[in-house]
Amino acid sequence: HEVQRQLRDATRDAHAALHGVAAFASLLAGDMTPGAYRALMQRLHDFYATLDPRLERGCAELLHDRHGFSYAPRAPRLAADLSALGAATTLAGERPRLPDLTARASLLGALYVVEGSLLGASVLARAAARVLAQGDAQAAAGLGYWTWSRRVAATRWQQTLGLLQVGLATPRDLASAGDAARGLFAALHAW
User: Which of 72, 90, 142, 181 could share a disulfide with 85, CB 3.0–4.6 Å?
Assistant: First the structure.
């Protein structure tokens, strides 16, 4: 998967920076409070509530041969977890700028990030379960997003790789996808 390798190389620094975000580091370290977990889930919901419609529209308009792929919005899953945790799903005021996803290559770069993020779900699911174990038993329902992510990651990632192989055929396409992927990592980092 040469395209995957090239995108991974192009986004390595942006991806590493995201791992350094205090909330993710705290979750993985196991020292996150249930309240901080709710705040993280609210941030993720806010991010995906803004991004999901763009990805859905882009997939419908730009991906004519999807190889079985259909974008699965994340915001509803995150909203269900927030509801189970007794937290609101209101969107924050000013949000970081998302990359332009109106071209096929940039859309594919964004899908590389979003669908690739599912691969770390098993690690994050275990970390989130430890955090929620500090609260009441009902709070375990706040794991739906991570559980879904872990369950669908392998299939969705293989479909995404198929889209990338077909859709990023030129160096220019690959560069555009890399720019969009880095932009999306940066937006999530700033969220």
Answer: 142
